[in-house]
Structure formats: C-alpha cells, structure tokens
Amino acid sequence: MQHLLMIPGPTNVPARIMNAMSRPIINHRGPEFYELYDSILKGLKYAFQTENDVFALTASGTGGVECAIANIVTRGDRIIVPVNGEFSLRVKTNVERLGGVPIEIPVKWGEAPTAGMIEEALEKEKDVKGLFVVSNETSSGAAIKDLEDMGKISEKHDLIFFVDAISNLGGDPLLVDKWKVDVCVTCSQKCLACPPGLSPISISDNSWKKIEKNGSQSFYFDLPKYKSYLQRKETPNTPCIPLYYALDEGLRMLNEEGLENRIIRHEKCANAFYTALEAIGLELFARKQYRSNTVIAFKNPRGVDAGAMRRMMIEKYGVEIAAGMGAVRETTSRIGSMGIVSAKEVEETVNALEKSLSSLGFKFESGSGVAAARHSLK
Question: Which class for 76: exposed (0-12), middle (13-18), buried (19 or more C-beta within 10 A)?
C-alpha cells in the first residue's frame, strides 16, 4: 500500500531528490563541494527573491529561528511578536530565553496579525528594535496577508523585520528584497519538497550592521563565522552533505517549474481542499481571509472520533494527515498541501477522508468532496 504523507511537513519527496542523496560523500573543503554550495546559494537567492547573503544551516526550521534571534537580538532588545499559534508562541519564548523582551500582540488562533496591529503597537511601545512574525502559522492554518505593508512599517520605524516562512516559502508570494525583509527563515521539508534537516536563512545588510556591532550569542549558529567562510564557498561546521545534494536538486526543480508557477499550484490545491471540505460539511478552522495555501486546518466533525478517522485514513487508504497542535490539538485536524502536491494527491486525500468519515457514521453526500475538488482544479 502507498503511504501518502499529507501532514504539514515533512512532505512527500520526489524520487529525483531522494536519488540525489545517494551520491558519494565528498570533502566539504574541496572543489566539488565549492561547486555544490555555489549552486545551492544561487538557488536559495531565487527562492527567497533576494540578493542578500543566504545560508543553508544543518538544522530544523526551529534552529533557523534560534539562529536569527541569537545573532541579532541582544539583551534587553524589545521585539514585537504577534502570537496567533504554537509557532509564534515559540518565537516569543525564544526571544525571552536569549535575553530579549518580547512585546506580545495576542491574536485569536485561526486569524493572523495585520499591519494595522503592528502600527497600533508601535504607537504605544517605545524603543522597539524589531518585529518577528510567523508568516504562516502551521498550527492553525492562518497566514499573514500583508507582509509587504509590515516591511514598510519596519523600515519606517527602523526595525529589524524577521519573518518565519518555514511552512510557506515557495507556496506563497514572499519577495524578501522588495518587501524589506531583513531576516527570513525557512526549512527544507515543506514547500521545497526535500527531506528534513536543513534551514535556509537570508540576512540583509541592515541585519549585518547589528550583528557585526554586537556579535553572536551562539557558537554553532555564529553568522559572522558563516559569512567569513562564505567567501570561499565553505561552511564553518561539517554540513550534512546528502541533504545538501537533496536541496540542490530541489532548488533545480523549483527553477525548472518556476517560482510563480509553484505558488499558483499551491494556491489551486489549497482552494480545492477548502472547497472539498466544505462540500463534505466540515468546518474550516482559519477565517476565510487568513486561510493558508499550504496548511489546511479543519475542526473535527461532531460525533466522530477524530483519532479513529485519521488512523483509518492511514491503515485502510494509505493517506496520513495530522492532528491539531498546541491549544487546538484535540479539536482540529490538519492537511499539509505543500511540496509536490498536485490534483492527484488532493483527490486521493479527499477520497480517503470521505470514506473514513462515512465508515464512522458521519452523514454527507458520498462523493461530494471529490467532485468539488475536481471542479475546483479544472
């Protein structure tokens, strides 16, 4: 039986990328690695839409977030952090642990912070040094829709603008340079369709000014050291070479498809999921104006054991979706619509969901979800 992984990461990985990891291990201080790393850096600049310095950290996305904070936030720095889910809450905690002072903007789960909220906070708060947002809250399926305006606000107030784009870079428009994003963090196992283990990050000239003034709080994630090694196309620590091969192949595939085309594909698949779930009679978790193009969150149907539903989808139909997370773990389920997702994966997931719900006694018109998805995907 197939195992179709439709969770919010890691995602299904194309055979082409998996095969790339079988190449021989090479010297990470030799000419073959220099060529590989140079190719990765060019590919990342395209993915981020930036001319800033980029790095591929051997770490999860959480490591990338910690790297950003440890290198730029110094003790006592006041950082605005909108909190609308589990991962934005982690950002707040990370800022605290590394000596910063998070200024929390509480936002209802299922909604996303807006530029207006940031402006309002800045009217009340003084001596703010940065703004750190999670552009796509993986725990709730809610995405920020006005990042560009937040970038303008950050530039106006001389803030470092941090963006966690872990679960949507490559699935949503995100123009790092044009939108004045100083630090952008993502990871390999979401919209880039690679295995987990790498966290690409982009760093602006504005960020470097503060980093070079204050130094890094981290030994492993020491960005000045990364920058010094960048000149000779090396990393300061031994990278995971098989994952570098995979990332390079994934970025080549992104370039071949075209970033805009990949974003359109993600949007179409997300819309098909939303249409299908509503046709079945399920209630979506995120408010319509904030719905993510990569994480589809829905409320567990009344009268149905959601755990049994998800287990049946795996055991009988080979399709795996995820439980909710954090404060909504017991009340929601999530579908990852990212990476190599296409009409085929959407239809197979909706079909497995329909059949499992029907077996568990949930009443709806059989086939309505699949029909709605197909119509949306035309």
Answer: exposed
Separation CA 75–CA 378 (nearest Å): 53
**pTM: predicted TM-score of the whole model, two decimal places:** 0.97
**Domains recognised in the chain with CATH numbers:** 4-8+258-377 (3.90.1150.10), 15-257 (3.40.640.10)
Burial group, residue 378, by CB count within 10 angstroms (0-12, 13-18, 19+): exposed
| Measured distance CA(109)–CA(140) in Å, rounded | 6
pLDDT tens per residue, range 365-377: 999 999 999 999 9
Sign of CA dihedral 345, 3, 167, 302: positive
- Please identify which residue in the block is written with the tokens 């998805």: 373
* C-alpha 316, offset from chain centre: 29
Mean pLDDT of the chain: 97
List helix spans (H) across 173-219: 205-214
Q: In sequence order, which residues have a C-beta less than 8 Å from that of residue 364 and are 6 or more positions away?
A: 279, 280, 281, 354, 357, 358
Check if the beta carbon of residue 183 is closer than 8 Å to that of residue 207: yes
Half-sphere exposure of 137 (CA within 13 A, CB side): 38
Helix, strand, coil fractions of the chain, as percent rounded to 5:
45, 15, 40
